[in-house]
Amino acid sequence: MAALHKLNPVRLAYIRDQAVAQFGCDAKRLNCLAGLSVLDIGCGGGILSEPLARLGARVVGIDPASENIETARVHAQDSGLSIDYRATTAEELTSTGERFDIVLAMEVVEHVADMPSFIQSCASLVAPRGLLIIATINRTIASFALAIVGAEYVLRWIPRGTHQWEKFVTPRELEQAVEDAGLRVIGERGVIYNPLADCWQLSSDMKVNYMLAATRDNSEQPDDS
């Protein structure tokens, strides 16, 4: 969780900036996401859902692990935040017909069994003119050295065995899956760790961590098939 806490500021800033560009939000307002619905897929204990709710968004957080959802509910209640947490999956949620202005899949796609199918489910939850924002890890020699050897074995930021290198996703593979799901890619940025400042920051370097934003054009309708 400490590693995700350090990632949170750069993730949150990217989401906010994409929302400002797409929906005309006022970035200077504390509740700049007011009026927008956000789905946080794989929300865990609510580490990203909570700051999004503080920015004014109506947040639904989903996770297949019921213990994560219970932890998230308790923490949100203790923090005075109203967040709709559900123990379910993106695939199951598609059957409800719900659509969201912003759908987030942050550090999730590198763990799913069928990435294209998962992206299809995520895309079907995006409302017209809505956004799908994904954060994941590229499949490169650099990512093996840094995200597995470095993060899991040397720095021990995350438990050993958290990642499988062969399940990492290249930007082109992700772009193709997103486009096949009926969305249009509108932005990509790398995320790098700055050891001097002890923080993560946006970069043009996408060899390891990166984020992608895509939209559903207003004329396009989700495929519920």
Q: Rough shape?
A: globular
Run of helices and strands: HEHEHEHEHEHHEEE
Biggest β-sheet description: 8 strands, mixed
Low-confidence stretches: none
Description:
The protein has 225 residues and is an alpha/beta fold. It has helices at 2-23, 49-54, 66-78, 90-93, 115-124, 141-154, 171-180, and strands at residues 37-41, 58-62, 84-86, 100-106, 126-137, 184-194, 199-203, 209-215. Strands 3-2-1-4-5-8-6-7 form an eight-stranded mixed β-sheet. β6 (184-194) and β7 form a beta hairpin. The longest helix is centred in the first third of the chain and has 22 residues, at 2-23.
Write the layout of secondary structure elements.
Blueprint (H helix, E strand, L loop, with lengths): L1 H22 L13 E5 L7 H6 L3 E5 L3 H13 L5 E3 L3 H4 L6 E7 L8 H10 L1 E12 L3 H14 L16 H10 L3 E11 L4 E5 L5 E7 L10
Parallel strand pairs: 1-2, 1-4, 2-3, 4-5
Antiparallel strand pairs: 5-8, 6-7, 6-8
Helix pairs in contact: 5-7
Summarize the structure.
With 225 residues, this protein is an alpha/beta fold.
Provide tags for this entry.
24% strand
